[in-house]
Predict the 3D structure of the following.
Amino acid sequence: MTADVMDQATGAGEDAAAEKIRGIRERINEIDKAIIELWQERAALSQEVGKTRMASGGTRLVLAREREIIEHFREALGPDGTQVALLLLRSGRGPL
């Protein structure tokens, strides 16, 4: 592959770079799969906590716990962590 012939799938201008990109993307796909599986497991567990709490006469939500989760993600991931935490919380409790 020459610089004027770019690999369409990777955007690379050289065979070695295209191969490296394919390898990295393979690992990214594995990580994405794990994230999705963990996300789904977390949502199911969170829903189970909510159902158990409500069945015992407790509240639907514990805002202090939600704030703790948001802060944990913000500290670990920066400003984007807040958005990740909010999405996780929403997927676990459903719409309010």
In short: The chain has a mean pLDDT of 91. Residues 15-55 form the longest helix (41 residues). Residues 81 and 90 are 14 Å apart (CA to CA). The chain has three helices and no strands.
